[in-house]
Amino acid sequence: MNTKPPAGPLVVGLTGSIGMGKSTVAAMLREEGVPVFDADAAVHALQGPGGALLAEIEARFPGSTGPAGVDRAVLGARVFEDPAALADLEGIVHPAVARAQRDFLDTHTDAPFVVLDIPLLFEKGGAALVDRVVVVSAPETVQRERVLARPGMNQEKFSDILALQTPDREKRQRADHVIDTGVPLAETRRAIAALVDTLRDLSSARERTI
Ligand SMILES: CC(C)(COP(=O)(O)OP(=O)(O)OC[C@H]1O[C@@H](n2cnc3c(N)ncnc32)[C@H](O)[C@@H]1O)[C@@H](O)C(=O)NCCC(=O)NCCS
Ligand SMILES: Nc1ncnc2c1ncn2[C@@H]1O[C@H](COP(=O)(O)OP(=O)(O)OP(=O)(O)O)[C@@H](O)[C@H]1O
Protein backbone atom coordinates (compact mmCIF):
# COMPACT_ATOMS: atom_id res chain seq x y z
CA MET A 1 0.00 0.00 0.00
CA ASN A 2 1.13 3.52 -0.74
CA THR A 3 1.84 5.24 2.58
CA LYS A 4 3.98 8.13 1.36
CA PRO A 5 2.48 11.64 1.48
CA PRO A 6 1.35 13.18 -1.85
CA ALA A 7 4.16 14.83 -3.80
CA GLY A 8 2.32 18.15 -4.23
CA PRO A 9 1.50 19.65 -7.58
CA LEU A 10 3.57 19.06 -10.68
CA VAL A 11 5.38 22.37 -11.20
CA VAL A 12 5.35 23.62 -14.79
CA GLY A 13 7.48 26.54 -15.98
CA LEU A 14 6.06 28.70 -18.78
CA THR A 15 8.45 30.92 -20.68
CA GLY A 16 9.16 32.56 -24.02
CA SER A 17 11.08 35.45 -25.49
CA ILE A 18 9.77 38.98 -25.84
CA GLY A 19 6.48 39.17 -27.74
CA MET A 20 6.09 35.41 -28.20
CA GLY A 21 2.62 35.38 -26.60
CA LYS A 22 3.41 34.19 -23.08
CA SER A 23 0.90 36.49 -21.36
CA THR A 24 -1.84 35.46 -23.78
CA VAL A 25 -1.11 31.76 -23.21
CA ALA A 26 -0.98 32.30 -19.42
CA ALA A 27 -4.46 33.87 -19.64
CA MET A 28 -5.71 30.82 -21.59
CA LEU A 29 -4.32 28.49 -18.90
CA ARG A 30 -6.13 30.50 -16.21
CA GLU A 31 -9.37 30.19 -18.21
CA GLU A 32 -8.83 26.40 -18.05
CA GLY A 33 -8.77 26.71 -14.24
CA VAL A 34 -5.01 26.29 -13.84
CA PRO A 35 -3.33 28.25 -11.00
CA VAL A 36 -0.71 30.47 -12.68
CA PHE A 37 1.97 32.50 -10.90
CA ASP A 38 2.79 35.59 -12.96
CA ALA A 39 6.35 36.77 -12.24
CA ASP A 40 5.87 39.90 -14.33
CA ALA A 41 2.71 40.86 -12.39
CA ALA A 42 4.68 40.36 -9.15
CA VAL A 43 7.33 42.77 -10.50
CA HIS A 44 4.62 45.31 -11.41
CA ALA A 45 3.08 45.10 -7.93
CA LEU A 46 6.47 45.57 -6.25
CA GLN A 47 7.26 48.53 -8.55
CA GLY A 48 3.76 50.08 -8.73
CA PRO A 49 2.19 52.79 -6.57
CA GLY A 50 3.18 52.12 -2.93
CA GLY A 51 5.28 49.13 -4.10
CA ALA A 52 7.68 47.59 -1.56
CA LEU A 53 10.79 48.15 -3.74
CA LEU A 54 10.32 51.81 -4.68
CA ALA A 55 12.70 53.27 -2.07
CA GLU A 56 15.48 50.83 -2.94
CA ILE A 57 15.06 51.39 -6.68
CA GLU A 58 14.99 55.18 -6.27
CA ALA A 59 18.18 55.04 -4.18
CA ARG A 60 20.04 53.13 -6.93
CA PHE A 61 18.32 54.81 -9.92
CA PRO A 62 17.49 58.39 -8.85
CA GLY A 63 14.58 59.94 -10.77
CA SER A 64 13.19 56.56 -11.90
CA THR A 65 10.22 56.49 -9.50
CA GLY A 66 7.35 58.84 -8.64
CA PRO A 67 3.84 58.78 -7.12
CA ALA A 68 2.75 56.32 -9.83
CA GLY A 69 5.61 53.96 -8.94
CA VAL A 70 8.50 53.11 -11.25
CA ASP A 71 8.58 55.01 -14.53
CA ARG A 72 9.20 51.92 -16.66
CA ALA A 73 10.33 53.84 -19.75
CA VAL A 74 12.94 55.76 -17.71
CA LEU A 75 14.19 52.68 -15.85
CA GLY A 76 14.18 50.55 -19.01
CA ALA A 77 16.32 53.14 -20.81
CA ARG A 78 18.85 52.98 -17.94
CA VAL A 79 19.15 49.20 -17.69
CA PHE A 80 18.52 47.53 -21.05
CA GLU A 81 21.76 48.79 -22.56
CA ASP A 82 23.84 48.69 -19.37
CA PRO A 83 24.45 45.12 -18.06
CA ALA A 84 25.88 46.29 -14.70
CA ALA A 85 22.85 48.51 -14.04
CA LEU A 86 20.50 45.66 -15.04
CA ALA A 87 22.32 43.30 -12.68
CA ASP A 88 21.80 45.82 -9.85
CA LEU A 89 18.08 46.09 -10.64
CA GLU A 90 17.76 42.29 -10.79
CA GLY A 91 19.52 42.09 -7.42
CA ILE A 92 16.77 44.27 -5.97
CA VAL A 93 13.80 42.70 -7.77
CA HIS A 94 14.48 38.96 -8.11
CA PRO A 95 14.71 38.02 -4.40
CA ALA A 96 11.32 39.65 -3.79
CA VAL A 97 9.81 37.82 -6.78
CA ALA A 98 11.24 34.54 -5.46
CA ARG A 99 9.47 35.15 -2.13
CA ALA A 100 6.16 35.84 -3.90
CA GLN A 101 6.65 32.61 -5.90
CA ARG A 102 7.22 30.59 -2.72
CA ASP A 103 4.03 32.07 -1.21
CA PHE A 104 2.14 31.05 -4.35
CA LEU A 105 3.45 27.46 -4.16
CA ASP A 106 2.58 27.31 -0.45
CA THR A 107 -1.04 28.30 -1.17
CA HIS A 108 -1.62 25.88 -4.08
CA THR A 109 -0.64 22.52 -2.63
CA ASP A 110 -3.82 20.69 -3.71
CA ALA A 111 -3.84 21.36 -7.48
CA PRO A 112 -2.68 18.53 -9.80
CA PHE A 113 -0.29 21.00 -11.40
CA VAL A 114 0.58 24.68 -11.20
CA VAL A 115 2.22 26.96 -13.74
CA LEU A 116 5.00 29.45 -13.04
CA ASP A 117 4.99 32.09 -15.78
CA ILE A 118 8.63 33.23 -15.69
CA PRO A 119 10.07 35.29 -18.57
CA LEU A 120 13.68 34.50 -17.55
CA LEU A 121 13.23 30.78 -16.74
CA PHE A 122 16.26 29.71 -18.82
CA GLU A 123 18.33 32.85 -18.31
CA LYS A 124 18.25 32.62 -14.50
CA GLY A 125 18.42 28.85 -13.97
CA GLY A 126 14.78 28.34 -13.03
CA ALA A 127 14.34 25.56 -15.61
CA ALA A 128 16.23 23.16 -13.33
CA LEU A 129 13.74 23.80 -10.52
CA VAL A 130 10.54 22.87 -12.36
CA ASP A 131 9.20 19.46 -13.44
CA ARG A 132 8.24 20.45 -17.01
CA VAL A 133 9.03 23.40 -19.25
CA VAL A 134 6.55 24.92 -21.72
CA VAL A 135 7.98 27.34 -24.29
CA VAL A 136 5.76 29.77 -26.16
CA SER A 137 7.12 30.53 -29.61
CA ALA A 138 6.30 32.11 -32.95
CA PRO A 139 8.25 32.82 -36.15
CA GLU A 140 10.76 35.68 -35.83
CA THR A 141 8.83 37.86 -38.29
CA VAL A 142 5.65 37.54 -36.19
CA GLN A 143 7.57 38.33 -33.00
CA ARG A 144 9.19 41.42 -34.55
CA GLU A 145 5.89 42.71 -35.91
CA ARG A 146 4.18 42.32 -32.51
CA VAL A 147 6.97 43.93 -30.53
CA LEU A 148 7.60 46.88 -32.85
CA ALA A 149 3.87 47.70 -32.79
CA ARG A 150 4.07 48.38 -29.03
CA PRO A 151 4.12 52.00 -27.86
CA GLY A 152 7.58 53.15 -26.74
CA MET A 153 9.33 50.29 -28.58
CA ASN A 154 11.92 50.69 -31.30
CA GLN A 155 14.41 48.48 -33.17
CA GLU A 156 17.32 49.40 -30.86
CA LYS A 157 15.45 48.58 -27.62
CA PHE A 158 14.13 45.36 -29.19
CA SER A 159 17.70 44.32 -30.15
CA ASP A 160 19.02 45.15 -26.66
CA ILE A 161 16.33 43.01 -25.01
CA LEU A 162 16.79 40.12 -27.48
CA ALA A 163 20.53 40.12 -26.72
CA LEU A 164 19.71 39.58 -23.02
CA GLN A 165 17.49 36.58 -23.69
CA THR A 166 18.29 32.94 -24.49
CA PRO A 167 17.61 32.54 -28.25
CA ASP A 168 14.19 31.18 -29.18
CA ARG A 169 15.79 28.25 -31.04
CA GLU A 170 17.60 27.13 -27.88
CA LYS A 171 14.47 27.60 -25.79
CA ARG A 172 12.52 25.37 -28.17
CA GLN A 173 15.24 22.70 -28.03
CA ARG A 174 15.21 22.66 -24.25
CA ALA A 175 11.41 22.67 -23.91
CA ASP A 176 9.27 19.67 -22.94
CA HIS A 177 6.32 21.28 -24.77
CA VAL A 178 6.30 24.04 -27.41
CA ILE A 179 3.18 26.15 -27.95
CA ASP A 180 3.02 27.86 -31.33
CA THR A 181 1.44 31.32 -31.28
CA GLY A 182 2.15 32.19 -34.91
CA VAL A 183 -1.26 30.69 -35.74
CA PRO A 184 -4.86 31.86 -35.16
CA LEU A 185 -5.76 32.30 -31.48
CA ALA A 186 -8.38 29.52 -31.66
CA GLU A 187 -5.68 27.05 -32.70
CA THR A 188 -3.44 28.04 -29.79
CA ARG A 189 -6.43 27.74 -27.45
CA ARG A 190 -6.99 24.15 -28.66
CA ALA A 191 -3.29 23.39 -28.13
CA ILE A 192 -3.56 24.73 -24.58
CA ALA A 193 -6.61 22.55 -23.82
CA ALA A 194 -4.62 19.50 -25.05
CA LEU A 195 -1.60 20.57 -22.99
CA VAL A 196 -3.75 20.83 -19.86
CA ASP A 197 -4.99 17.25 -20.44
CA THR A 198 -1.40 16.02 -20.91
CA LEU A 199 -0.19 17.76 -17.74
CA ARG A 200 -3.12 16.36 -15.71
CA ASP A 201 -2.27 12.86 -16.97
CA LEU A 202 1.40 13.36 -16.10
CA SER A 203 0.46 14.54 -12.64
CA SER A 204 -1.77 11.55 -11.90
CA ALA A 205 0.76 9.09 -13.37
CA ARG A 206 3.31 10.61 -11.02
CA GLU A 207 1.00 10.19 -8.02
CA ARG A 208 0.48 6.50 -8.86
CA THR A 209 4.23 5.86 -8.80
CA ILE A 210 4.80 7.44 -5.38
C1 LIG B 1 13.28 47.64 -16.57
C2 LIG B 1 11.77 47.49 -16.48
C3 LIG B 1 11.19 48.43 -15.41
C4 LIG B 1 11.21 47.89 -17.87
O1 LIG B 1 9.82 47.68 -17.88
P1 LIG B 1 8.99 47.63 -19.26
O2 LIG B 1 7.53 47.65 -18.88
O3 LIG B 1 9.49 48.69 -20.18
O4 LIG B 1 9.37 46.28 -19.96
P2 LIG B 1 8.88 44.78 -19.59
O5 LIG B 1 9.05 44.53 -18.12
O6 LIG B 1 7.54 44.56 -20.19
O7 LIG B 1 9.97 43.93 -20.35
C5 LIG B 1 10.08 43.96 -21.77
C6 LIG B 1 10.80 42.71 -22.22
O8 LIG B 1 12.09 42.67 -21.61
C7 LIG B 1 12.25 41.48 -20.90
N1 LIG B 1 13.02 41.72 -19.68
C8 LIG B 1 12.67 42.42 -18.57
N2 LIG B 1 13.63 42.36 -17.65
C9 LIG B 1 14.61 41.59 -18.20
C10 LIG B 1 15.86 41.13 -17.73
N3 LIG B 1 16.26 41.41 -16.48
N4 LIG B 1 16.62 40.34 -18.56
C11 LIG B 1 16.18 40.01 -19.81
N5 LIG B 1 14.98 40.42 -20.32
C12 LIG B 1 14.24 41.19 -19.51
C13 LIG B 1 10.83 41.02 -20.56
O9 LIG B 1 10.75 39.62 -20.39
C14 LIG B 1 10.07 41.43 -21.80
O10 LIG B 1 10.20 40.47 -22.82
C15 LIG B 1 11.37 46.01 -16.13
O11 LIG B 1 11.60 45.19 -17.25
C16 LIG B 1 12.15 45.46 -14.94
O12 LIG B 1 11.97 45.89 -13.82
N6 LIG B 1 13.04 44.46 -15.21
C17 LIG B 1 13.84 43.87 -14.14
C18 LIG B 1 13.03 42.79 -13.42
C19 LIG B 1 12.98 41.55 -14.27
O13 LIG B 1 13.99 40.86 -14.42
N7 LIG B 1 11.77 41.26 -14.84
C20 LIG B 1 11.56 40.16 -15.73
C21 LIG B 1 11.52 38.84 -15.06
S1 LIG B 1 10.42 38.68 -13.69
N1 LIG C 1 -2.15 32.36 -31.55
C1 LIG C 1 -1.80 33.36 -30.72
N2 LIG C 1 -1.39 33.05 -29.47
C2 LIG C 1 -0.99 34.04 -28.63
N3 LIG C 1 -0.98 35.37 -28.95
C3 LIG C 1 -1.43 35.71 -30.18
C4 LIG C 1 -1.84 34.72 -31.12
N4 LIG C 1 -2.22 35.36 -32.24
C5 LIG C 1 -2.05 36.68 -32.04
N5 LIG C 1 -1.60 36.90 -30.80
C6 LIG C 1 -1.33 38.25 -30.24
O1 LIG C 1 0.07 38.39 -30.00
C7 LIG C 1 0.30 39.22 -28.88
C8 LIG C 1 1.20 38.47 -27.89
O2 LIG C 1 1.53 39.34 -26.82
P1 LIG C 1 1.81 38.86 -25.31
O3 LIG C 1 1.72 40.10 -24.46
O4 LIG C 1 0.95 37.68 -24.96
O5 LIG C 1 3.35 38.41 -25.43
P2 LIG C 1 4.42 38.16 -24.27
O6 LIG C 1 5.24 37.03 -24.76
O7 LIG C 1 3.75 38.02 -22.96
O8 LIG C 1 5.26 39.49 -24.32
P3 LIG C 1 6.44 40.08 -23.38
O9 LIG C 1 7.40 38.96 -23.06
O10 LIG C 1 7.04 41.12 -24.24
O11 LIG C 1 5.74 40.66 -22.17
C9 LIG C 1 -1.07 39.58 -28.29
O12 LIG C 1 -1.48 40.83 -28.77
C10 LIG C 1 -1.97 38.46 -28.87
O13 LIG C 1 -3.32 38.83 -29.02
TrEMBL record:
ATP binds at residues 19-24. Transmembrane segments: none annotated. PROSITE patterns: DPCK. It catalyses: 3'-dephospho-CoA + ATP = ADP + CoA + H(+). GO terms for cellular component: cytoplasm. Keywords: ATP-binding, Coenzyme A biosynthesis, Cytoplasm, Kinase, Nucleotide-binding, Transferase. Its EC number is 2.7.1.24. HAMAP family: Dephospho_CoA_kinase (MF_00376). Catalyzes the phosphorylation of the 3'-hydroxyl group of dephosphocoenzyme A to form coenzyme A. It is found in: Cytoplasm. GO terms for biological process: coenzyme A biosynthetic process. It comes from the Bacteria. GO terms for molecular function: ATP binding; dephospho-CoA kinase activity. The keyword Oxidoreductase does not apply. Belongs to the CoaE family. The keyword Cytoplasm applies. This is Dephospho-CoA kinase. Pathway: Cofactor biosynthesis; coenzyme A biosynthesis; CoA from (R)-pantothenate: step 5/5. It comes from Flavisphingopyxis soli. InterPro entries: Depp_CoAkinase, P-loop_NTPase. Its main location: cytoplasm.
